[in-house]
Amino acid sequence: MPRNTHTILRPLALIGALALVAPLAACAPRDDAATGTDTMRVAYLSTANYLTTLKNERFAQDELAPATVEFTGTYNPADARTAIQSGNADATSTGTGSFINLIAQDQPWTAFAIEYYDGDSQGIVAAPGSGVESLEDLYGRTIAIDAKGATGDYIVHQAFANAGLDASQVTEVEMSPSNFSAAFGSGQVDAIATFDQNLASAMTTPGARLLVNAEEYGNLNVSIHIVAQSFAQEHPDLVRAMYRALVEESDKAQEHPEIITDAYREFGASEDIIDQVAKFDVPEILPIDQNGLDMLERQAAQYVDFGFIDAVPDLAGHVMDCSE
């Protein structure tokens, strides 16, 4: 795959409306003497983001030395966050929308890297035999999503809003992504709104139809890497080191995208799914600098419009700019 260079754009009208209420957190300089016995524990997910694929590299260990890094998994995002909250891990990954929801609930998280892609790995797929050929055909029908306010819900609302349609005219069914394939193939739902390997699985199902992908409607919902806020405060040097390792892994993947497909193969994905995943945009690690924060705040404004949250939360107080 060719390397894709991504730029986060900021509409001027929203910049004025979303004034920052706190400065970006800075990454403190590294103090090796103070961190020699520290460990950063990563709860990695069953999706091939770079915090997951790093477990197969030496980048993280080299960057954190003399501290160490431990990878445990695989987790779904909710269980990974529970592992951190219970003190069994320090870092994991989630979607930017889920991160916004967490901060809106006053939960103690700090995001330190955005994993940006153009959106072709998110979308809505009509089930075989459903007769659905367009988004409007889904009025009065059912769409499977992962959870209210999460990525699937965002996909539905953003896709319908972009098409000038009313998302309230469809019935969203929450279910675990592990149940998507069975529900989709058996006709339990008329469509699914999903991402990554689940989208690839749906797209390769005989008789299914891709109705829209996020690249077509202006995608803001991407992956983000997070740590417990207490860990960021106590070990900013380790967070900064992990950011550098993520950048190195991202740079390598631009030339060797098999890093991603090999991970899905390791997770047991079929070759049909892997072939479809190989067609998706190769993500790039970006810092949560001013541009990154603006992007998060624009998505938070969409979450307010969709009724997912009441107000744009203080995201600036929960991010770390490790680009300097």
List keywords for this structure.
disordered N terminus; 13 strands; alpha/beta; D-Maltodextrin-Binding Protein, domain 2; four-stranded antiparallel β-sheet; single chain; 40% helix; 324 residues
What is the overall shape?
globular
Mean pLDDT: 88
Q: What's the arrangement of strands in the largest beta sheet?
A: 8-7-9-6-10
CATH topology of the largest domain: D-Maltodextrin-Binding Protein, domain 2
Order of helices and strands: HEHEHHEHEHEEEHEHEHEHEHHHHEHE
First-residue to last-residue Cα separation: 29 Å
Gyration radius, in Å: 19 Å
Structure description:
- With about 325 residues, this protein is an alpha/beta fold.
- The chain folds into two domains: about 10-115 and about 220-320, 3-Layer(aba) Sandwich (D-Maltodextrin-Binding Protein, domain 2), CATH 3.40.190; about 120-215, D-Maltodextrin-Binding Protein, domain 2, CATH 3.40.190.10.
- Helices cover about 40% and strands about 20% of the residues.
- The protein is built from 15 helices and 13 strands.
- It has helices at about 10-15, 30-35, 50-55, 60-65, 75-85, 95-105, 150-160, 180-185, 195-205, 215, 230-235, 235-255, 260-265, 270-275, 290-305; strands at about 25, 40-45, 70-75, 90-95, 110-115, 120-125, 140-145, 170-175, 190-195, 210-215, 225-230, 285, 320.
- A five-stranded mixed β-sheet has the order 8-7-9-6-10, with helices on both faces. Strands 4-11-5-12 form a four-stranded antiparallel β-sheet, with helices on both faces. The chain has a two-stranded parallel sheet with strand order 1-13.
- It starts with 11 loop residues before the first helix and ends with a strand.
- The model is unreliable at about 1-5 and about 5-35 (pLDDT under 50).
- This is NrtA/SsuA/CpmA family ABC transporter substrate-binding protein.
- It comes from Bifidobacterium phasiani.
